[in-house]
Amino acid sequence: MKKLLIIGLWGITSLSFAQDRNFAAINPALFSYSTEDVYINPPSKYNGGSHLLSPDPKRYPWEERLENGMPNAMVDGAGNVSVYFSSFLIFSPTPPSRVGVMVFTNTTSNLSSWTRPNLGLYWYNAAGKTADEKITPTYQAGYQNTNLVAVDIESLGIYDDGGTSKPIKLIYMPQREFQYRFLGAYEMDRSFTSTGVLSGFTAMKSDRKQKQKVLTFKNINADTHMNWMKHRGKYYFTSRVNSRRSALKPGEVPPFATDPRKRFRRNTITELGGQITSKSVDYNVVLDYSTKQWEPYSMQPFRLPGFEKDIWMGLATMYGVEGYPDIEKKQRTELVISNNGKDWYYLKPGTPFLDNSTNPQADDFGCINIATPVYHTKFHTGRNSQDPFFFYASSKMRHEEGRNPGISLATSKYGKLAGLKATSEKTFYSLSPAASPEVTVTQMPKFSLKNAFAIDAEFFPFILGDITDDPRNKTLAQLNSYVLIRMFAYEQGTAHGLGAYLGGVFGSSVAGTHNVSDDYEAVSFVSGGVVGTTKSALLMYLKACSDKEPTKIISLKDFADIPIVLETRVKNAVFYGVKFNQAENHTVSVDVDAANDFSPSGIWNFQPSSPVFEDCYVADFSSLKRIPNQIIPTRMESGAMALRITPQAASYDQTIIRMSGDEDNFLSMDYLSNGSLRYHMVKEGTDYLNMQIAPPAGKTFQGKEVEVTIEAVKLGKRKYYKGYKEETTIMRVSCPSLNYEKIIPQDIIWKFRRETPTPVDSSYARGYAYLPFSAFVGNMDKIVVGGSSEACTNKFVGSIHQIQISPQLPADNARNNWHHTRLEAITFSDSLRKRKVE
Fold it and tell me: Mind listing the UniProt keywords for this protein, alphabetically (predicted)?
C-alpha cells in the first residue's frame, strides 16, 4: 500500500530569524555567465558630477591640498550625513607633513547645505612655522576652530559591522608610528553628535595610541583607502602593495638616482579572525590589472541591505596606467565581486561603474575616489530609502601633485548596480555538476520543502529587471521582453541537471504598461497546466518521492533540503536579481551558502596522449562561464607551475608553454638555444622576470627528462627552498639522469636607493618583488602549449609529458603533480587542437 504522510504541513515553526533574501543575478552560484553577458548600470551623477562642496583654502587653510581625499560616508539615525576625508592637512616639502581626517556634514534635505562643524578637537594656528605647529590639539587665543576629527592617521576606512558593541571599525595607517610595518585599528560606538558626527572621535583624540590595535606586517610598501569587511564571523581588510620589475635592463645599475622601473599597484586582503586584536598579520593579493590600461588603486567592499547572504561587491578605484595619454593618472571606479570574501574578480574588466566626465572642465574629469554607499538619508525623500547613494571625492586634475578634490554624488536604484543582459534569448543555469565537474551536490543551491510549506511561505523568487513587457495573461511566445525563472530538482545525467519541475515565474514591467519596474515582480509561469507560484508542483514532487519508497512515511519535518537547478531565460531585458520572501516563521526556501563557499581545485592539467605532437594546443578562456571562487590559470594572483619535458636541440629559442593577451604581455617557459631553461614574464613589452637555469658545466638537458617547477606562493605554501624567507618567485630545475637540481629565487633589488639599504628601503624592495603571477601580467586569456603562438612559432621540438598550473604544488615529496578523483574531468589534452573553455 502506497502512503504519503506529511506532518505539520502548514504549521512548521522555526526559531531561526532571517530577512527576505536578495541575490544578485551576477552571483555565479545562482546564475553562471560569461563576461560578455554582464551589464554594468552606472549610477546617475547628481548635477553632472559637480561638487556639492568644494575646497575653500582661503577660509579653511587645511583644505589647500587635499590630494587623494579618501572619503567615508556615514548616516545617523535621523538621516544626517557625514563625510570623512582622509587627506593631507598641511603639506610640507620637508617631512613630516600633517595628515588627518576632516568631516563635512549635512543635516538637511538640501544637497547644497553642507557645513564644516567646529568640533573643538583641533585648531589651526596661522602663525605656526611647521606643519605640526599649524594644526594643534590645544586652543590658544587667535586659533581657528576646525572640522578635524583626527590627526596623524592616513588612508582611513570606516566600517559599520552591524553589531551592538563598538560596531564602528576604523582601519588606518598611523603616520608617525608606521615604520612600513604597522597599521592601526580602532573601534567606537555607533553614536553621533547633534550635527551628525561620530562622537567616538572625541575619545580617540586622547586614547588612540593606547586603545588602537596594532597590526604588524613583515613589511608594507603601500596603503591607500583601506576598509573592513566581516564575512562569516571573520574580519578582513583591504589594502595595497606596489611592485616593480626584478629584471633590469642593460645599463641599469643600482642604486638609482631616479628609479627607472615603473610602479604597478596590486590590491590586497588581510584576514584577522573573529576579533580585531593586536597581532602579526599578512596579506594576500586579490586584484591585479583589470586591463592593461587600468590597475587597482584601492577597493571598498560592501553589501546592499538585504543581500547579507549574497555576494560581496567592491568599489575598485582604478588608476590609469602611465603610457596611455588619454587615461594615464586618471582614477575611476569598476565593480568587483566575491562569493567568499577572499577571492575577488572584476565583474566586467575595463568597463567603468563610475567614470570620469569627458569634459576637461568638469569637477570629476581627473580623479574619482568613491566611498561605500549610504541609505536612509534625508535626501531620499520621494524615492526608495534603500537606493544606494555614492559620495565620492572628485577633482578636475588627474592623480598629480596639487590636485584638490571636493565632494560629488552619484545615485543608483536598489539592486540595480549590475546584471545579465540579453537581446536574443539567453539561458543561464545555477551551479551544478553539469556546470563544473568539480561540483558535488552538497555544494549546489538548496531548496527546503519544509520552509516552502511554512505559514505564508512564498517559495518562488521575485524578479528584479529592466523588462518592458507585462507577461500577465500572455504566453512566452507573445512576449518580446522577459526574464523567466524555472526551478528544478537536480537529477544526475540529464541536460543541465534538470529533474522534477518545482515552479516558475516571470519578471514584469509595471503591471499593464511597458514601463520598467524598479520593484521585485513575480507573475506565474504556467507549464503543463501547473501554475508556477502554487505548490502543486511541490506536492507532485513529494508524491514522486513517496512512490519511489512506497512503504516509507515522508515527513516534511525530516525531509532533507534538496539540491536544485535554477534555469533563467532572458530576452531583450536586463536581469538584476531575485528576492525570496520570508514566511511567518522568518524562514526562506532557498539557501546558497554552500554554493558561495564552493572551493574549486584551481588545477589546470595538460597531459597529452603522446608527448610529441605536430600542432600546438590552445586553450581560450575569454568566454569562460563563471562559477563561485573560480581559479583561472591566466588570472591567478599567485600560483605554481610544474612541467615534465624532454628537450631537444634547435637553433632558436623554443617555447614550451605561453600564456598571453598580446605580444607585449605574456608569461612563458622556454628552452633556449644555449641549453638553459627560462621562466619569462613580460609586461608592457619589458622583461619583468627573466629567470634562467643552465645545465651543469659540460652537460646538456637534451634528450633527458627534466622537471621544472615555478612557485609564486607564500612561504607557508612553498614546497622548495623553504629556508629562503623572502616571498618571491622560486624556480627549480631537476634532471635525475644528471643527478642535478638547481633552485633560484627571483631577484630582489635591495640597493635601488643606496648601497646600504635602510629598513624602509628593504620594505619597499620586498613589496616590489612580491609574488607576481599570471594575473599580474594582465589581459591574458589564452594558453598555448608547444609554441609561442597559435601558429606554433618557436615550436618546442622535444617531448611534453605533463604541465600543471595550480594554486600550489602538492606537499608529497614523491611528485609535483596533483592527482585526485576529478582531475581527469578537467584535463586538457589532445582531444581538441584548440578549445574555447566555457
Answer: Signal
Q: What is the pLDDT of residues 784-829, one digit of tens each?
A: 999 999 999 999 999 999 999 999 999 987 788 887 544 544 455 4
Does the CA dihedral 477-483-487-493 come out positive or negative? positive
Among residues 374, 375, 337, 371, the alpha carbon closest in space to that of 354 is found at 371
CA 750, distance to chain mean position in Å, is: 31
For residue 288, the SS3 value is coil
What's the pTM value of the predicted model, to 2 decimals?
0.94
Average pLDDT over every residue of 696-700: 97
Average pLDDT, the chain: 93
Whether CATH 1.10.3430.10 fits 604-836: no
What is the distance between the alpha carbons of residues 380 and 414, in angstroms, rounded to a whole number?
12
If one counts every other C-beta atom within 10 angstroms of the C-beta of residue 424, the result is 7
User: Cβ-count burial of 557 within 10 angstroms (0-12 exposed, 13-18 middle, 19+ buried)?
Assistant: exposed
pLDDT in tens, 70-80: 999 999 999 99
Contact indicator for 648, 679 with CB cutoff of 8 Å: no
The pairing of strands 706-712 and 367-370 is unpaired
Fold of 42-244+269-415: Tachylectin-2; Chain A (2.115.10)
- Cα 649 to the chain's mean position, in Å? 44
| Among the listed residues 765, 694, 701, 712, the one whose alpha carbon sits nearest the alpha carbon of residue 736 | 701
DSSP-based three-state secondary structure for 37: helix
Is pLDDT at 181 greater than 70 in this prediction? yes
Question: How far apart are alpha carbons 425 and 409 in whole angstroms?
Answer: 36
List, by residue range, all CATH 2.115.10 domains of the chain. 42-244+269-415
Give pLDDT, residue 17. Answer: 37
Q: Where in the chain is the domain with CATH 2.60.120.200?
A: 604-836
pLDDT in tens, 581-603: 998 888 999 999 999 999 999 99
Which grid cell is 86? 582622509
User: What integer is the mean pLDDT of 388-416?
Assistant: 96
CB of 438 closer than 8 Å to CB of 822:
yes
